[in-house]
Amino acid sequence: MMTKVSVLGCGWLGLPLAKALIQEGYVVKGSTTSVDKQDLLEIAGITHFPIALETENFSAPVDDFLAESETLIIAIPPKLRGKNKDYSDANKNSFVKKIENLLPYIENSTVKNLLFISSTAVFGDANATINDETPLSPVTESGKQLAEIETLLNQNPHFKTTILRFGGLIGPDRNPARFLAGKENVANPEAPINLIHLDDCIGIILRILDTNSWGIQLNAVTPNHPSRKEYYTQKALESNLTPPTFNESIPSVGKTILSDRLIQLLDYQFIQLDL
User: Fold this and answer.
1) Domain carrying residue 113
2) What is the DSSP secondary structure assignment for residue 186, as one 8-state letter?
3) For position 204, which CATH number holds?
4) What is the pLDDT of residues 199-244, one digit of tens each?
């Protein structure tokens, strides 16, 4: 019998991931927040479910979306920035509440394994080398909520959770050259970069499923950490864009995130080392 996987959030990461899962022989159910994307998913062979998570009671076809699936992948960005930069509407957008609302559905489903896509934002901005044993110390609102969700899922006895924390995402529509091109007085020129390419995001997720690696937390960042200044200057020049200028007068702060456990446990080799 073919294994069924439900992918919650078929966006920038979730849609190409769902397509890759189908190529690997999985039966895939996918969710989006818009009915408009239905054709796009159906053409790719993904059964579409229009599900928008809500902080209050929500009526969505979640039971059907999870039915018969052994694995659930949650690939939704927190989207907490909202309209107000001071996060005054963060409560209304509470990602934690949305996931809490989802939990009873998962608990009553056939799902045994859950993969939650988190972010290295759970580590804040310490001047430190971060490995998989480093305690979480989030600073941003999204980092705090992701950390809370990690705990929430890890403590749930109804399924095994693997947490995958991606660094900055690079790939289609996310050209690093454009991030800082032409900007002036950019902070932290000597801070190391912690990025990962979409190809590796998908490669790692497929490997987790392939090796049944559940009940673990993994940091996923390409093991190549040039400084921000060196990297973004080079990328801008390669694309014929104006390189950013950096503020050298204030000492740089930034973490280096290691993916050693991921490489070791999954026996994984990064595809895109030269981002």
Assistant:
1) 4-173+196-223+256-266
2) B
3) 3.40.50.720
4) 999 999 999 999 999 999 999 999 999 999 999 999 998 889 888 8
Q: What percent of the chain is helix, strand and coil (3-state, nearest 5)?
A: 35, 20, 45
Q: Which residue has the tokens 């989802």?
A: 102
CB atoms within 10 A of CB 66: 21
In a domain, 103, yes or no: yes
19 in Cβ contact with 44 (< 8 Å): yes
Assess if residue 32 is contained within a domain.
Answer: yes
Question: Are 47 and 24 contacting, i.e. CB atoms less than 8 angstroms apart?
Answer: no
User: How many domains would you assign to the chain?
Assistant: 1
**pTM of the shown model:** 0.91
Whether residue 190 is contained in a domain is answered as no
Question: Phi-psi category of 56—alpha, beta or left, where left has phi over 0 and alpha has psi -120 to 50?
Answer: beta
Q: pLDDT for 9-56, tens place per residue?
A: 999 999 999 999 999 999 999 999 877 888 889 999 999 998 888 887
Structure tokens at 124: 């804040």
For 129, list phi and psi in degrees, rounded to 5. Answer: -95, 125
**Helix and strand counts by DSSP (H, E) for the chain:** 9, 11
On whether residue 242 sits in a domain, the answer given is no
Task: Give the burial string for 19-38 (b: 16+ CB within 10 Å, else e).
Answer: bbbbeeebbbbbbbeeeebb
Look up residue 269 and give its DSSP letter.
Answer: -
